[in-house]
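Entry type: protein chain
Record version: 2
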Amino acid sequence: MAEDLSRREFLRAAGRAIALGGLGVLAFRLLRRGGRSRPGGAETCVNDGLCRGCGAFAGCGLPSALSAKQRAPWARGRP
């Protein structure tokens, strides 16, 4: 049988559970949202339109990155 909790212990445990649950929900939403997308699903540029040297360039689908991949030798793997 479980121990009888005093009112103070119950409130303390409930507060911890609520705080932990809130942190879990916040972490889930941040991870699910991702770093490069807006709530509407559209991509946003993480490097102010400068494709060369951008860490997200390989998987980027923005028009400026797509045209850079077609015209720039560095984007096609050549120096």
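Comment: The chain has two domains: 1-34, 44-79.
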